[in-house]
Specification:
6-stranded mixed β-sheet; alpha/beta; globular; about 15% strand
C-alpha cells in the first residue's frame, strides 16, 4: 500500500449480536465517497480582541468565557416568552438563573440556526464561527453551551458543528432524573465521593484482526501507562478475558472511581427488532459477548464520575450515518450502519441516559454516535497509533492541579478534526487538478475527521474531575 491508500478491509467497533459480530468488511473498489464533503466545516476558536489579558477558557465563570443553554425553538410562543424561557423545565430555569447564563433557541434550517430572543420582542441570529464569545452583550455567545433536547429535535450534526468552535454538552433528562442531575451539578456533586486516585480502565480484546485488539493497545493500554506512571494513582485494570461485566461492576464498587475508561464493541443489533435494539443500543459488549445495562451497576459505584466509552453508538445513533455512503448494499459494514439508522433513528443511547439520571448521577458520559474504524486509529505512513490526544485529555488535562472542564479538555480532539478537514481540502484540490491518486488521501482525512467529530459529551461541559483523592 502507498501513502494513504485505502485498505482492502476495514474494521469497526460495532457488534450486531450474532456469533461473530461485524468485525470487518471489504472496501468497494469503485467508491468515490471521499470526493463528497460530509464533515462539519472547521471553524476557528474565537478569542477576545483588544490589548487585554485573554481569559483562561477553562474558567467558564469568567464574563469573557461564559455558559449558555440551547433549547428548541417553538414558533407558537411569543418572542418575549421565548426570551423568558417560560417553557423550560423548572430545574433548567433554576440552573440558567443561578449561572446567569444566556438562553438560545435552535431553529431548524439547512445548517441549523441559533437564535436569541429578547424581552422587547427582538431577536438575533449568530454564526458559531464568527460571533464574539463571552457572557455579556447582545451579540455575544458563551464558549460553554449545554444543548437540552433529543437529537430528533436538535440534531447530532448541529452538535458536531458547535464542537468545532465551542465547548458543548447535551442533556435530555426529564422529571426527577433531570432534577437530580441539575441539583448535583449546582452543588458540585458534593453528595458523591468519587476517588480520583482510583481510575478504572476496562478493555475487551477479541484478538487477531478484531478492532478491539487495536483499541486496547491504542487507548486503554496508553491511558493505563499514564496513570501507572503518575505516582499518586492506583488504577484498576481489566483487560482481555478479565473484561467481563461482573468484573467491571465489582471494580467500580470497590474503587468508586472519578474516571472510567472503557473500550469495546457497542451493540448494534438485532436490527430486525427495533424495540430491542433501542433498549440496548450502544451497550458495551464484554469479553463473553454479554451487554452492559445500567441495571447491572450500583449508582454509588459510578456516582460523580466521568465515563469515557470508546464503542460504536455508545452515545447514541443518527437517522442517517455519515459513513453509510462509503459502502454499497451488500457490504457488511454499510448494511449494519443503514440497519442501525433505520431501526434506532435519532436517539441517545439508554446506558448514558440511565447513568446521568441515576440517584446519585454520573457527572458526564463521553461516547461516539458513529463507529470507529481501525484505519483512522493508526497513521497510514508510520503505523503509529493516533490517540495521544485522548491520553492527554483523560490523564493530563482532566487531572492537572488546575482541573479542566470536560468540554475544554476534549477541545484538542475537535481541533484534530479541523486539521483533518484542512488536509482533506488540500487533497481534493489535487484531485480537482487531475491527481486522482489523492482521492484515497481525501477519503482517509474525511473519515478521520468524522470519527473525531462524532465524539460527543452527554452532560454539562463544565464538569471537572473533583479535587482531592
Amino acid at each position: 500500500m502507498g501513502f494513504l491508500d485505502r485498505p482492502s478491509v476495514l474494521h469497526i467497533n460495532a457488534w450486531t449480536g450474532g456469533p461473530a459480530g461485524v468485525f470487518g468488511a471489504n472496501w468497494p473498489e469503485d467508491g468515490d465517497w471521499g470526493a463528497a464533503k460530509r464533515a462539519a466545516p472547521a471553524t476557528n476558536r474565537v478569542l477576545s480582541s483588544g490589548p487585554v489579558d485573554l481569559p483562561d477558557d477553562a474558567d467558564w465563570r469568567h464574563p469573557d468565557v461564559g455558559w449558555g443553554l440551547v433549547v428548541a425553538d417553538d414558533p407558537a410562543m411569543s418572542n418575549a416568552d421565548k426570551a423568558a424561557g417560560v417553557d423550560l423545565p423548572a430545574p433548567l430555569k433554576t440552573l440558567l438563573d443561578a449561572r446567569q447564563g444566556l438562553l438560545f433557541r435552535y431553529v431548524p434550517s439547512d445548517d441549523g440556526t441559533v437564535r436569541r430572543y429578547y424581552a422587547d420582542g427582538g431577536e438575533s441570529d449568530w454564526d458559531p464561527a464568527g460571533t464574539t464569545r463571552g457572557r455579556v452583550g447582545d451579540l455575544v455567545v458563551p464558549k460553554y453551551l449545554l444543548i437540552y433536547g433529543a437529537p430528533q429535535v436538535i440534531p447530532w450534526r448541529f452538535q458536531y458543528a458547535l464542537n468545532m468552535s465551542s465547548y458543548v454538552g447535551r442533556l435530555h433528562l426529564e422529571g426527577d432524573a433531570l432534577a437530580r442531575y441539575v441539583e448535583a451539578l449546582m452543588n458540585g456533586f458534593s453528595a458523591t465521593s468519587p476517588r480520583v486516585s482510583r481510575p478504572v480502565i476496562w478493555s475487551v480484546n477479541f484478538g487477531g484482526s478484531d478492532i478491539t485488539s487495536l483499541m486496547q493497545q491504542a487507548i486503554a493500554d496508553d491511558v493505563q501507562r499514564a496513570f501507572a506512571g503518575g505516582g499518586a494513582f492506583a488504577p484498576t485494570r481489566l483487560a482481555d478475558g478479565d473484561a467481563t461485566l461482573a468484573n467491571l461492576a465489582d471494580a467500580l464498587k470497590a474503587a468508586r472511581p472519578a474516571l472510567i475508561v472503557t473500550t469495546s464493541h457497542g451493540l448494534t443489533g438485532p436490527a430486525a427488532d427495533p424495540a430491542g435494539l433501542q433498549a440496548k443500543l450502544g451497550g458495551l459488549v464484554d469479553a463473553e459477548r454479554d451487554v452492559l445495562t445500567a441495571a447491572l451497576l450500583q449508582p454509588e459505584s459510578f456516582a460523580g464520575a466521568i465515563w469515557y466509552a470508546h464503542a460504536c453508538c455508545s452515545a447514541g445513533s443518527d437517522r442517517t450515518s455519515q459513513f453509510e455512503a462509503l459502502f454499497k448494499p451488500g457490504n457488511d459494514i454499510g448494511d449494519t450502519l443503514r440497519a442501525v439508522a433505520a431501526a434506532a433513528g435519532d436517539m441517545i443511547a439508554p446506558l448514558p441516559q440511565a447513568l446521568l439520571g441515576a440517584d446519585p448521577p454520573l457527572r458526564a458520559f463521553v461516547g461516539h454516535v458513529e463507529p470507529t474504524f481501525d484505519w483512522t486509529l493508526r497513521d497510514p505512513r508510520t503505523g503509529q497509533v493516533l490517540t495521544s490526544a485522548l491520553r492527554e485529555c483523560l490523564y493530563t488535562r482532566l487531572h492537572q492541579s488546575k482541573r479542566q472542564p470536560i468540554g475544554y479538555a476534549l477541545a484538542r480532539i475537535y481541533d484534530e478534526a479541523g486539521t483533518m478537514l484542512t488536509l482533506y481540502n488540500q487533497a481534493m484540490a489535487r484531485v480537482n487538478k487531475g491527481d486522482f491518486n489523492a482521492l484515497d488521501a481525501a477519503t482517509y482525512r474525511q473519515v478521520a475527521a468524522l470519527d473525531r467529530q462524532s465524539l460527543v459529551i452527554l452532560g454539562d461541559p463544565t464538569v471537572t474531575i473533583p479535587d482531592g483523592d
